[in-house]
Amino acid sequence: MEFVPKELVHLLYVGVLAFLVGLELKTYRLAKAQKRTHIGSTRTFTFIGILGYLFYRIDLWLYLAGFLALTGIYLSYYIHKLQKNRSSIISYLLITLVYSFGPSIELFDIWMPTLLFVLIVFLLNANRALRYLFEQINMEEFETLGKFLLLSAVILPLLPDTPLPYLHISAFKIWLVVVVISGISYGSYIAQKYIFKNKGFLVTGILGGLYSSTATTVVLARKSQIAPGVINAAIVAATAMMYVRLLIITYIFNFKVAKLLTLPMLGFFFIGSLIAFVLYTKSQDISQAPIDDRNPLELGTAFSFAILFVLMMVLTNFVVSHYGNLGLQFLSFIIGFTDIDPFVLSLLTGKYTLTHWDIASAILIASGSNNLLKALYALLFGHNRPKVAAVWLIILGMLTIISPKIVEISRSLL
Predict the structure, then answer these.
(1) Highest mean predicted confidence (pLDDT) among 164-168, 297-301, 380-384
(2) What residue spans define the domains of the chain?
(3) Three-class SS of residue 170?
């Protein structure tokens, strides 16, 4: 039984894709009501695709000569366009892409020209979507995206992966921690600002809790005069999401500790969510989400986080070496009244003479005392209006602080 030659299949496939690109370009021009002279029709693009495949199969130099010939033809046409005050080169770009279908199918198989065709179709029809995107997005967000790429794709690969003295962790892993935390913060910020924009205070609390429940509590408390009932629910929801965020971070950096924290963290998350739901359903406020354009991803913030992370590792190492687990528990309670992320990550990534349960207990104590700090912030910045939320945060905080002891007692009884 004779099979169809692969070369014939590739030639026909390239011809079909080239024809469809020409057809798509013609549709694009008709949609824009362009009644101008253009270079290249549907048949022209089909011939260009076939020539590109044949020339590449025959000889590479012939293929390059064909590319130069097409460029020369388009150049003469482009000079004519400039005289008509037209400067678009989209036709030339499509010609070069179609001409490359032949080499791409030979070098990468059928998926590459298919992917190129899909991208061409998408981009030709993306005008309306792009116009909406540019109207909605603050151009400063592209600068922020550049900062994140700088943190992750430029700085991170350049750092050495050899452990540092005393810390027993490499500069690469220290900065990896910064990248992970920045990624979580940036992702939740983008979701809050663009996907769930103006969806209500409760959504603000939920998404804000994913990158900083403390900062979100302050922002919401300052808006408490608008809708105090919903604000109470949103503040508690932000703290409930803190447990989820800490659990995600723990799973990323220390799976064994994460398994120990899964039940208590999810338990407190469900308790906080239930409280927030009840408070929200009892509220009669009409809520409108605050617009907070402050981006959590800044280079200064990232470097400060890295410095704090290293300092927390040094401090934790000192306390554990001299005062053991009891000293660590006291330190955890004190650290809870500051930014707990560097401390938690230092516990998860450091090399200490501690059991996994000791680390899990310290994280629970720190997150519990952090709830007490947020209760204080809610009262101070909300001028005593979010006092219902403050009471629930204190209750959640105390339960979280004593939860390690409850687990230990339960274990001893069993």
Answers:
(1) 380-384
(2) 6-131, 139-413
(3) strand
Phi and psi at residue 22, in whole multiples of 5°? -60, -40
For 218, 239, 257, the CA distances from 377, given in Å and listed in that order, are 6, 13, 30
Count of CB atoms within 10 A of residue 245's CB? 22
**At 61, which amino acid appears?**
W
pLDDT of residue 218: 86
The predicted-structure confidence for 26-78, as pLDDT tens digits, reads as follows: 777 666 655 555 666 788 888 989 999 999 999 999 999 999 998 888 888 88
Q: Which residues contact 210 (CB under 8 A, 6 or more apart)?
A: 184, 185, 187, 188, 241, 244, 245
pTM for the predicted model, two decimal places: 0.69
Exposed, middle or buried by CB within 10 Å (0-12, 13-18, 19+), for 39?
A: middle
CA dihedral 128, 131, 135, 136 (to 10 degrees): 60
Q: CA 171 from chain center: how many Å?
A: 23
List pLDDT tens digits, range 307-361: 888 899 889 989 988 888 889 999 999 999 988 989 999 999 988 888 999 999 9
The Cα-based distances of 120 to 91, 125, 179, 244, 353 in angstroms read 12, 9, 33, 40, 57
Alpha-carbon dihedral sign for residues 208, 213, 219, 220: positive
Contact 167, 313 (CB under 8 A): yes
Half-sphere CA count of 30, side-chain side, radius 13 A: 7
